[in-house]
Amino acid sequence: MIAVSDIYRDKHVLITGGAGFIGSNLARCLSGLNAHVTIVDSLIPEYGGNVFNLNGYEERVVLNIADVRDQYSMNYLVQGKDYLFNLAGQISHTDSMQDPYTDLEINVRAQLSVLEACRKYNPKIQIFLASTRQIYGKQVQLPVNESHSLNPVDVNGINKIASEHYHLLYHRVYGIPITILRLTNIYGPRMRIKDARQTFIGWWINQIIQGKTIRVFGDGQQLRDFNYIDDVVEAILLITSKAEAVGNFYNLGAEPISLLELARLLVELTGKGSFETVPFPPERKMIDIGSYYGDFSKIQNRFGWYPVTPLREGLQRTLHYYQENLLRYL
Amino acid sequence: MIAVSDIYRDKHVLITGGAGFIGSNLARCLSGLNAHVTIVDSLIPEYGGNVFNLNGYEERVVLNIADVRDQYSMNYLVQGKDYLFNLAGQISHTDSMQDPYTDLEINVRAQLSVLEACRKYNPKIQIFLASTRQIYGKQVQLPVNESHSLNPVDVNGINKIASEHYHLLYHRVYGIPITILRLTNIYGPRMRIKDARQTFIGWWINQIIQGKTIRVFGDGQQLRDFNYIDDVVEAILLITSKAEAVGNFYNLGAEPISLLELARLLVELTGKGSFETVPFPPERKMIDIGSYYGDFSKIQNRFGWYPVTPLREGLQRTLHYYQENLLRYL
Q: Which residue numbers of A have CB closer than 8 Å to B's CBs?
């Protein structure tokens, strides 16, 4: 983090979705680097925003409650900012199938209006976009690199592709500096664990620290990669500080682990709870992507990023956080 | 056409954008094949719908004036139909940059609501989607086949990708039979020639038959391929009749010609008018795709389609049509 720490000092930073999991960790870090942080978050209960995520930073960051779909607020809020970390999004795959219009409104139309706001009112703002491995859909070969075909398996994946394309277009045509990371599974303090809507690992953590049984869908042999939140925040700050990264997109990723092994590890680390395999619920099966892990050599070779936090250590820190703060997240 | 002619007899067919260029030619053909044709068209003056396109068929097809963005009308209209030819769209590239929200509403949100209407009220309806070569953007290699990467250069291209993905998703997840053609430049009777908003060749025809000067952007060496409308209608009817084509997409295409040669040919065929090269207007340059021609071997090898109408002959027929009916299209 030393390399980028000075770049954000005294800078004016806007974080959409800033009370959510990634956003709040980023906000806390940027505040620690002496940036002036303004958070935009709608605090919709079903999404990831949680005021407690900003605990201890209430006086150091500005929390502006607004929805990114509110075009007029965004027109104002982007003004005078040096950086926009564009993290707001609807990220539930199952929600996107049950209510495709809302996913479209948040993940496409609102993204377009944020870009239009920047084009009209602040075209020099540096934008970071949080994209997702979901755009790859079912993988054709592993690990998945950035040239992999895009075969989205759900509405969410389709809309996130459109969002990426919009960002790249506004860079190419209007010259707005934009950098993109395609994130994989992320875990750590301040993630939503209330239900399985957004991430299954949050739900597993919820269950396991209450001594319950984790349900692993299918045979549990599906591989996934998991990045610890601090490594992700570091990647975001690193990539947004690099002029060479503008107009480009990079995978994050990690060593893969099977879901069964992950469940076993969580039980071992907490010393309670258990796990079992159960058949896929049909609404999940139809949009399941099978095994996935990302090839992160592009960002590693160019900028030196790699996931430094071992899974075991990251999980320990995460479990510790929720054991301390469980009631704030239920 | 013999092969498919019986398939559509007595079938109930809905054509969105059915008063437009492709839609009206398709409607006339299907009506001739004794299908029961209902047309949905908003007849927005800036788009391609023109009541005169249905001249002589007023008693044989049902013209229902409605916008595909009107979800409730679509919910009703898809019911009881065997086929949906989904042709409605905003197709102007420059309009999509100036008003990205409208392009998003028509090309993405309305497509989603048409699919939702089918899923809820008529999941067995057979859908044909008119997609476009615009989704490929700037080509990496020529001719462009269906595996070419998608690098859209404008909002229209981005939104058409989302539309394709939605259609494929609703096929895969909900089992709705859907077939897609990626269309290239199309010309022929009943195209809009009022301005250059939708297709430059229409505008050129307008200019040349009035003895004016065609303006060719750049050096005129850009290659493009042009399909005559009758060949396109045949491809649509063919592909929609093939069970093996469901869940798939196919390029159309033709022998390429440079824009300068095309201009020269138009002048030769009309015996009047002239052409000149002019620099690209900036708003066109920034979204220009350079040379393009499609590899149509996938549809040719599997289903035997190829563009039978020579360019010279197709242009002659087209020029003749507009010489007869010019005032209906100005």
A: 97, 100-101, 104, 108-109, 112-113, 116, 150, 152-155, 157-159, 161-162, 165-166, 169, 172-173, 286-287
